[in-house]
C-alpha cells in the first residue's frame, strides 16, 4: 500500500538525485511516465545522468529535445517518476515546465523543471523492492560517465 509523503522529496531521494557518485549509479534507471498524445501513459527510461534534485521541491530533467516524452511534457505538463530505493518503490507525481538554458552541455536536450506534488512511498512489511530498471552500456562506464558528468554539472549549475 502506498503512503503519501506529501509534496517534497524525502532526504534519501534528494541525495540519490543530487548528481553525486554517478559511477556508483551506473546501470541504474528510473521510469518517467508522461501522458501520450493517444491518451495512454507513455513510459520512458531515465538515468541518474538526466535528473538532478536541487532541493526537496525542485528537480531538473534533461531529455532528448525531440523525444516523445519531451513532446508529451510540452503538451501535458505533468509526469510521474518511478524509482526503487531502500526496499521501497517511490512514485513522484509532479508538474513540469520547460526551463530555458543556453548551457553548452545541454545543447540538443530539452530541460524541464519538475516540481513534486505527491510523493508516494510503496512499501510492505516483510517484502522489499530489491531493484528498479537496470541497463548495460556497451560503450562502457567511462563513456557513459563522460556523457553524464557535463549534463549533471549543467543541471546543478542551473539552480545557482
H/I helix tally:
3
Low-confidence stretches: none
Give helix % range: 10-25%
Main β-sheet, in a few words? 9 strands, antiparallel
Give the mean pLDDT.
96
What CATH first level would be assigned?
A: Mainly Beta
Helices and strands, in N-to-C order?
EHEEEEHEEEEH
**Given the helix and strand composition, which structural class is it?**
alpha+beta
**Strand percentage, roughly?**
35-45%
Q: What is the alpha-carbon Rg in Å?
A: 15 Å
CATH architecture: Roll
CATH topology: Pnp Oxidase, Chain A
Tally of DSSP β-strands: 9
Distance between the termini: 38 Å
- CATH superfamily, by name, is Electron Transport, Fmn-binding Protein, Chain A
Query: How many domain regions?
Result: 1
Instruction: Note the overall shape.
Output: globular
How is this fold's topology laid out?
Elements: E1 2-4, H1 11-16, E2 28-35, E3 41-46, E4 51-55, E5 58-64, H2 68-75, E6 78-85, E7 88-98, E8 109-122, E9 133-134, H3 141-157
What does it look like?
The protein has about 160 residues and is α+β, with helices and mostly antiparallel strands. The chain has a single domain, classed as Pnp Oxidase, Chain A (Roll). Helix content is about 20%, strand content about 40%. It contains three helices and nine strands; from the N terminus they run βαββββαββββα. It has helices at about 10-15, 70-75, 140-155, and strands spanning about 1-5, 30-35, 40-45, 50-55, 60-65, 80-85, 90-100, 110-120, 135. Strands 1, 2, 3, 4, 5, 6, 7, 8 and 9 form a nine-stranded antiparallel beta sheet that branches. A hairpin with a 2-residue loop joins strand 6 (about 80-85) and strand 7 (about 90-100). The N and C termini lie far apart (about 40 Å). The mean pLDDT is about 95.
Amino acid at each position: 500500500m502506498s503512503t503519501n509523503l506529501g509534496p517534497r522529496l524525502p532526504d534519501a531521494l534528494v541525495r540519490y538525485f543530487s548528481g553525486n557518485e554517478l559511477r556508483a549509479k551506473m546501470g541504474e534507471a528510473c521510469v518517467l511516465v508522461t501522458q501520450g498524445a493517444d491518451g495512454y501513459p507513455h513510459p520512458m527510461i531515465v538515468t541518474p545522468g538526466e535528473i538532478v534534485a536541487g532541493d526537496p521541491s525542485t528537480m531538473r530533467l534533461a531529455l532528448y529535445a525531440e523525444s516523445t516524452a519531451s513532446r508529451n511534457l510540452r503538451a501535458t505538463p505533468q509526469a510521474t517518476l518511478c524509482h526503487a530505493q531502500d526496499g521501497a518503490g517511490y512514485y513522484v507525481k509532479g508538474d513540469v515546465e520547460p526551463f530555458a538554458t543556453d548551457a553548452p552541455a545541454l545543447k540538443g536536450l530539452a530541460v524541464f523543471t519538475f516540481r513534486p506534488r505527491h510523493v508516494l512511498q510503496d512499501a510492505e512489511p516483510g517484502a522489499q523492492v530489491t531493484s528498479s530498471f537496470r541497463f548495460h552500456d556497451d560503450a562502457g562506464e567511462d563513456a557513459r560517465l563522460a556523457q553524464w558528468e557535463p549534463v549533471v554539472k549543467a543541471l546543478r549549475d542551473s539552480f545557482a
